[in-house]
Specification:
Elements (H helix, E strand, L loop, with lengths): L3 E6 L3 H13 L3 E7 L2 H11 L3 E4 L2 E2 L2 E2 H10 L5 E6 L4 H9 L4 E4 L4 H18 L7 H9 L18 H13 L5 E2 H8 L3 H13 L3 E7 L5 E7 L3
Parallel strand pairs: 1-2, 1-3, 3-6, 6-7
Antiparallel strand pairs: 4-5, 8-10, 9-10
Helix pairs in contact: 8-9
Length: about 230
């Protein structure tokens, strides 16, 4: 099977490289190009004809949403996954109305990134199965990739220990303050900061926690994790 070609549009080179590594870890995809500006993205999209754009909204010389509309207006057959820091309702609505396949809020975690690409690969495979679709096929194409499945709490991926996960869930169930860092969670369960962070990012990927960057009293940014229930 021919790999699906991906064009990454991201002006931060570190994030672009991270997304490239993520792509390379998902079977069936290859990165065909990297673009750091609106102009470069428009040119490479025309020349390379990728199957999928991983598109940031905020570019130094333009807006990713405008690029998405421009590609649509000229009939270019490319799908788009937006990966952006924009979390407001208006941005999400515009993306969906413009035909974005998926929408990932930065910083992207691999589990959510992999989910988006896997769903896109299944979507493309279904489109290529034949010239005629029944109602069930159409319903799946129109709706399945916009409705993430809730993961069974008992089913965890490799590298996630259910007992450790239960301990972290208990930490958030017991806490009264809003938000904990990976270091604070690790201290409470007797694990390293990196181990705690791996579990916390997993919980973010399954929408059990949310995360945000908080600036402390000295202005140093810190990633903190929040329970939806608190």
């Amino acid at each position: 099977m021919t790999p699906l070609r991906v064009l990454i549009v991201e002006d931060d080179p570190r994030i672009a490289q991270l997304h490239q590594r993520f792509c390379e870890k998902v079977a069936g995809f290859e990165v065909s190009g990297l673009a750091a500006t609106y102009e470069e993205a428009d040119e490479l999209a025309t020349i390379l004809e990728p199957d999928l754009l991983l598109l940031d909204l905020y570019l130094p010389d333009g807006n990713g949403m405008d690029l998405l509309r421009q590609l649509r207006s000229r009939g270019q057959e490319v799908d788009v996954v937006l990966i952006t820091a924009a979390k407001d309702v208006a941005a999400v609505q515009q993306a969906l109305r413009a035909g974005a396949f998926d929408y990932i809020v930065k910083p992207a975690v691999f589990a959510r990134f992999e989910e988006a690409l896997t769903k896109f690969a299944a979507y493309r495979q279904q489109l290529e199965q034949g010239d005629v679709l029944n109602q069930n096929d159409i319903d799946q194409l129109l709706h399945s990739h916009h409705q993430p499945k809730a993961m069974d709490r008992g089913a965890v991926p490799k590298g996630i220990d259910p007992l450790t996960l239960t301990k972290i869930r208990q930490v958030f169930a017991d806490q009264e303050q809003q938000g904990l860092s990976a270091e604070e969670v690790g201290a409470q369960i007797g694990a390293s900061r990196s181990t705690a962070r791996r579990y916390l990012e997993y919980m973010v990927s399954i929408s059990e926690l949310t995360a945000d960057v908080v600036y402390g009293t000295v202005g140093r940014p810190e990633r903190r994790y929040f329970s939806f229930e608190n």
